Amino acid sequence: MTSDERHRQMDDVRVLADLTTEALWFRYVALTGTGDLIDLDGYLHGLTSLESGQQVVLAQALNEALDDGHGARRFPMPPPARRRVGHGRRCAHEPAPDARRSTLLRIEARATPGV
Description:
This protein is mostly helical. It has five helices and no strands. Helix 1 packs parallel to helix 4.
C-alpha cells in the first residue's frame, strides 16, 4: 500500500469510527503518539507525512476506536470461572481454616488494646 492510499484509508476508518480528528488525536497521543493535532490533520488529508512508527501508533488508535464503537457486535465472552467455596481442598501454601482463624484472633486482640 502506498503512503497516499494509507492516509486515505486511515481517514476513511476515522469517519467509519465516527471520530473527529481531535478525538482521534487524543487517542493517538494517549498511545504515545508524538505528532500534534495539525500534524495528524495534515497527514489524514495527505498534506504531511508521519514516520512509520507514528503511523503504527495511529493505526492502533483507530483499531481501538473501532473496537470501542463496534464492540456490541462481538461474541460475548463467558464470565470468569469462580472458585467453588467449600470444595474440601486447599493449596499447599494456604493455611488450614483453624490456623487462619487463630491468626485473625491474634491480630484482632493486638488491635484492641486494653481488652
